[in-house]
Amino acid sequence: MADQYQYNTNTNEEKIVKDSHTKEIDLINRDPKQINEDVVKVDFEDVIAEPDGTHSLDGVWKLSYTTFTVSKYWCYRILSAVFGIPVALLWGFLFACISFCHIWAVVPCIKSCLIESQCISRIYSLCIQTFCDPFFEALGKIFSSVRVALRKEV
């Protein structure tokens, strides 16, 4: 019983200590957010088509289909095996740099500009209240006795 309790404690600790960089990935659905659904999903029928009245031999058509499908499959596999990890490294580095710049430069710069604009806004508001408000109040008092009458003449 004590061994079982120790095992459960270790299992719980393992769950707690699990690294966020090693989350489980779905090896079946590799595009769960469907970001490449319309862009790179290209089949033989999307590229090569023979209109009515212009058909090649059936054997040539079948072999062309097989050649296209197999060569696309293996070319992608080989390219991703050779360049996938280096390109993933470059993209990781790029997005890390973008995140770093955003966190350490862009957001503080925007915050600084907002603080400065609030200061300028207060000075502008004070100037408007000091100089323009009395001027427009005086104009309002001058023209307050003006009466407008509309007459419709036929």
From TrEMBL:
One of its GO terms (biological process) is regulation of cytosolic calcium ion concentration. One of its GO terms (cellular component) is focal adhesion. This is Caveolin. Its main location: membrane. It comes from Perca flavescens. Keywords: Cell membrane, Golgi apparatus, Isopeptide bond, Membrane, Transmembrane, Transmembrane helix, Ubl conjugation. May act as a scaffolding protein within caveolar membranes. Interacts directly with G-protein alpha subunits and can functionally regulate their activity. May also regulate voltage-gated potassium channels. Plays a role in the sarcolemma repair mechanism of both skeletal muscle and cardiomyocytes that permits rapid resealing of membranes disrupted by mechanical stress. Mediates the recruitment of CAVIN2 and CAVIN3 proteins to the caveolae. It is a peripheral membrane protein. Belongs to the caveolin family. It is found in: Cell membrane, Sarcolemma; Cell membrane; Golgi apparatus membrane; Membrane, Caveola. GO terms for molecular function: molecular adaptor activity; transmembrane transporter binding. The keyword Metal-binding does not apply. PANTHER family: CAVEOLIN (PTHR10844), CAVEOLIN-3 (PTHR10844:SF16). The chain crosses the membrane at residues 78-105.
